[in-house]
């Protein structure tokens, strides 16, 4: 993904935090944060995509799902979990945006899970100590001390010194200029997306009468 300057990482992390805050207000747990699921709109603000793993959770759930690098320890251990796993993944995202790689990595998923459960992170020497303090509070396996999971909820995250200069009301109203505005020629420009070979499927003879036409007459 590459490294982001601290102000850039802070902007995107802040918008993700607001997105989580909104989803959680409806008891929805996202469960699949990763860079690939964060898109930018035409003004450079984030859009969380792929809610295939999102789930309505009022208490706990046990499903093993998500992206391996971003899995919270309680998911790996098959413990009941809730919205705290989203805040854990935010900590992983902040680390990756600043360091350029996730805090735990191994091509072998089982070894990766062992690394996650160990909780031992190799911190880059130049990692901002204030950002590190926030990340440590987000990726801790101790749910009784994980930020976002305490009695103040997301306020603990938003009030952390790393976010000190962020005006959360302006950020929520999209009044803070995005650090990157995607280049586009028109509203339908797909130039910022990777190209994939398209497959052409035959759907039969469409020249005959539509036997279901009357059922969908208003469509």
Describe the 3D structure.
By secondary structure, the protein is mainly alpha-helical. It has one domain: Transferase(Phosphotransferase) domain 1 (Transferase(Phosphotransferase), domain 1, Orthogonal Bundle). It is built from 7 helices and 4 strands, in the order αββββαααααα. The strands form 2 sheets. The chain has a two-stranded antiparallel ribbon. A two-stranded antiparallel ribbon has the order 2-3. The protein starts with 5 loop residues before the first helix and ends in a 47-residue tail after the last helix. Pfam families: Pkinase. Residues 1-163 form the Protein kinase domain. It catalyses: L-seryl-[protein] + ATP = O-phospho-L-seryl-[protein] + ADP + H(+); L-threonyl-[protein] + ATP = O-phospho-L-threonyl-[protein] + ADP + H(+).
Brief account:
This protein has one domain: Transferase(Phosphotransferase) domain 1 (Transferase(Phosphotransferase), domain 1), CATH 1.10.510.
Keywords:
219 residues, mainly alpha, Transferase(Phosphotransferase), domain 1, two-stranded antiparallel sheet, cAMP-dependent protein kinase, nucleotide-binding, Kinase-like_dom_sf
Which secondary structure elements does this structure contain, and how are they paired or packed?
Elements: H1 6-24, E1 28-29, E2 38-40, E3 46-48, E4 55-56, H2 73-76, H3 84-99, H4 109-118, H5 129-138, H6 155-158, H7 168-172
Antiparallel strand pairs: 1-4, 2-3
Helix pairs in contact: 1-3, 3-5
